[in-house]
């Protein structure tokens, strides 16, 4: 089973540009194994942050992209059938608890309630995971920690974490980085010059003001990196912005015009 | 099967600070094996109380975190397949009934109705559990008792226990502890000085007045312990309150301001 | 299979206090094996009555607590897998039909429609149960009788028995017993003196007037027995009434006050 | 497989009292194997009629009580697992088609649409039943006929047969029998004198006028037989009418009074 | 596998009375294997037409009656278990694609969307069917063609084919035949004299005007054949029309009167 | 496993008529393995474009027609049972990731959310696919790329890609081709003369103006090819337009008239 866990180790330092004291706070939270919630919009760096922390703490990281069809079994495990009958197969949460990984449940609010309730006994002082189907009570490894992500601009009344779940987590707020930092990130990740990266960040700044006025979300750092990548591969800048920044997120003609105008301002 | 039950024994006295005569009433209820319902908000100590009582009575405790996707089979048991065909595997409720544990169904109202109806024959004078899939009629062990938790501020019309279920239980009301007691608990659990603990309790008192005026729930004792833990790990007090008390439960700017103001009053 | 049925025999006469001619009418109904419906509020003695009749008629009694996730297979049976392939396992209804038990479907209205339709061929002159999955047509044993319970104050428009089901049953109405009889029952079941039992019955009488004016159901005989049990175990009477009569059924402050006032009138 | 079908043969002439030319019309329909629909209220004799016709035509009768959780597999068949792998098990419709029985789908409208569509190829000139799971195309036996029942006072807009299903059937209308005939039936089935039977029929006549004015359905012939049975077993007539006619179908105090008044008129 | 396909061959010419150039158009469509949609009301001859064309083109015809509980697996195939483990069983669509049959999906709109999407790759120039469960990519046999039926008067907004499905088919419109042709059909199919058949057709014409004014659908050619069949079996004409034309499709007294009046006009 | 992937190679250059710089942009996107979204109406050439690009890049192409009943298992894979127990079978997405194909998810918005979330880890810098059921973490082959299609005129509020999914893709907009190009395509694909093809394109142009004024979608290039095919097979032009252009998409008499008028204008 050592092999199962070793594939989740992060050998190379991920590129992460800190924006505040988030690394120190997370260190303190991990030292008491406090369950943590990373809050913020899509594509702002939450996943990269947890990868960085896992590397810094030298702990394996098991990431699960949650979805509304995911069941508790997908997290906890299930019986498989082999030549000698059924055999229990640990799910990612059980592997993490058993071998001492950080378990990162991405967009946990998408999951059905049973997946969120199944984590409760791992988040209070018992730190146990009852495998009801086998009758085993797994005591979490001392290194185990539970982390979830949460997009506050995203939850409907119908689909939100229960208060009794939220109260089991400390929380760190994430936003898009400040312009200078974001410019540094885009340039680092794509290889385009700082000047080009700066123009892309300026376009994003204008577009983010459209959030709630025709756009559901602003343009994320990830999208700027896509645009930068196309430019670095010889696609003309305005065309690259169309393909990577505008076309994916809106088909509304007015929004398209507004985004084109922003692009023209900087790449006119 | 002795091993199955022994893992549910509580060897070490759990820290529990009584707030009223709840221990004596529970003793009386257990002496006639009356099914009990623990009512109160999330994080106020219901789970800790039942752990304490199980330790005091020297009975194993089987806790099940209920959820809306849980089925009667998750409680009662199911058939597994091995080399000789199907084999019955007792669920947690059946193990508790068979071996004489206290079975604690946490947030039972979240479960589907079949999980609540399946407990009926265990709560009247028959004290039996029919395993319909095997045709066995399990008579409960003399030590068996059923306990459920229930959060009164939480149930919708759509999702509540049926009257015919409620009437099968005696009930104990729980609240957040009085300030002096809560201060004692926070200090004991985190190691922060009584003065710091007292400030955290005062912040919680202010925040609990916001319940129903922008907050769905007040700040629980558990959250105060989280904040204390961060402070004890050298996170600055105001930052710790933000991470542990405010950020997890609200994203509303007004509520954030109100909570920040409360924090500044004591840690300004 | 004799063992399967013998566990459902009732060896000891259950305590049942008749309130009218219900025993004679049931005897007549059983003599023509008329399917019967026991109607009345929760906790008024329907289950005890059918246990008593099963003992009196010396027939095994198979009780099934119905619920909305119960399927026809839970009643009729299913295929299990063993070393030689699938093997049919009779469900409780099939066992009752095959071996001549009284089958009592408690709160049948909670079950999905397929469970109610599956009983139709057992309730007309054919008295057969087709096991569609095996192709067997089970002819009911001459002793077999079907009994269901039904709480009239409880059914919504959405969830009621179909007329074509109701018309297949004779029906007996049950109510809470007259005060003198209820006092006798509470004293007999708990060992408290008739005077204490009488006070509990008087409290129940006042509380039952609140049904429909803030309480969904009145206080049942079962709850009075719970209160008596706590008193017999040295819990102070007012506290016992709070734990056993008020706290389980309401969290409304006004209702709590009204119930407390009723308790104070008799135990002040 | 001969044994499978032989259990569906009706050896003894069922008691059936014809009310019109329904026997002759059915004979003509059967001679061209026209699929038939029996329409009428619950408990008016549809099931008894088809049993009689099956006996008269000397064909086996396979009756399926349809319900909303029934699937096409419940009608057509399924794979079972035995020591040599999966084995196909014909469902009741397939057995009927293969061996030439009359297949009677009782309350077919309750079934899910797939059960109604699965019968389509059996109702047009192909008279085939494709078993999609085995790849077999079963040609119906020359004796096979499909019959369904339908309660017109019962269907909601949400739950009705599709036009494309209805048009595949001839239809016979059934009502409660004329008073003289119903009196004859009740007396024959219960052994009570014609005078008592006549009074029961008169009560039914009054009660049937309440249909749509507080009662969902009238009192059926079946219920009159229940009342007669209790009377024949020495239950007093008014009590028998309460148990068999009023209590099963209504809890409304006004309706109870109206039915009691009708009973008093004849058994006062 | 030759046997699987041979049972779908049509050896005898089906009786089909052409009403327009539908045979020539279909021939052209088949020559380029254009997927076809047959549109028209229930019972107007769509199924008979495709049977005739399959006979004329000498291709096997696999008909699937679609329904809302049908899954993609019912069309494409599934794994079965035998002594050596799982074995793939082709579904009707896969058999048709593999062996070159015409696959006729009757009332395809009733099926769940996955059944309609699964046909997409078979309807564009790739003509492939990916069996995702086996990883096989079935290239359609050169003779394979896909045909669906569609009742335009029938679809609700909720349940309609997607535009991206509709655009993959050529379409032929069907109506009830002209009176002279319909008279010829009814007489041919039932053996009643042309005069009787003509009266039945006239009744149908009157009834079809009631569509949308109290009747959901008109009387189909199939129903006229039913009526003719009963008349040919010595049921009196008015009674036959009641059983075959009126009773199956309406219980509304006004509609019954209107249909009776139409019948009396011709068979009075 | 080489055989599994080789069946997805495209050996022959597909006919694709470029309309803009889409080939160059796609080349750049592929060079950084940017996930791509092809947006545009049904039948405008998106599928043909991706087939062409796969041929040009000499990569295998695995196309999956998404639907609302598709589960994550249909994409990722599942356990099958064989003589030695369960065996894992890669789904199409896993095959593509493992062997380096372009995976094209057609109409991905139709799929349930779990299918869209399952692609997330393949679209960020990790490029991994966790097979939770086996515990394997598949690292994508360097050649792997993910492509989805999306019809903007088609999505309801209820059914749209989540922002957090959209932001993971670059996007290319597709429209129906310009008239001259579309004429060239229709003529090339069907063999009809340019003049006939031009008339068909002119009819389409008129019909596309009806979109949103009675038609849900315009007439696609694919439909023009169907009409051309019928004409090339000697169906008269007006009849061919009726069968291929009008009848499949509308039953509204006004729309039929409008389309007939357009046809008459050019083929009058």
TrEMBL record, chains A, B, C, D, E, F:
Which Gene3D superfamilies does UniProt cross-reference here? P-loop containing nucleotide triphosphate hydrolases
InterPro entries recorded: ATPase_dyneun-rel_AAA, CbbQ/NirQ/NorQ/GpvN, CbbQ_C, P-loop_NTPase
Extract the Pfam families matched here. Answer: AAA_5, CbbQ_C
Q: Which GO terms describe its molecular function?
A: ATP binding; ATP hydrolysis activity
Q: Which residues form the ATPase dynein-related AAA domain?
A: 36-169
What are the record keywords, sorted?
Answer: ATP-binding, Nucleotide-binding
Q: Kindly indicate whether the keyword S-adenosyl-L-methionine belongs to this entry.
A: no
Top-rank taxon? Bacteria
Q: Does the keyword ATP-binding apply?
A: yes
Which ranges carry the CbbQ/NirQ/NorQ C-terminal domain? 182-265
Recorded family membership: Belongs to the CbbQ/NirQ/NorQ/GpvN family.
Q: What's the protein name?
A: CbbQ/NirQ/NorQ domain protein
Q: Which organism is it from?
A: Sideroxydans lithotrophicus (strain ES-1)
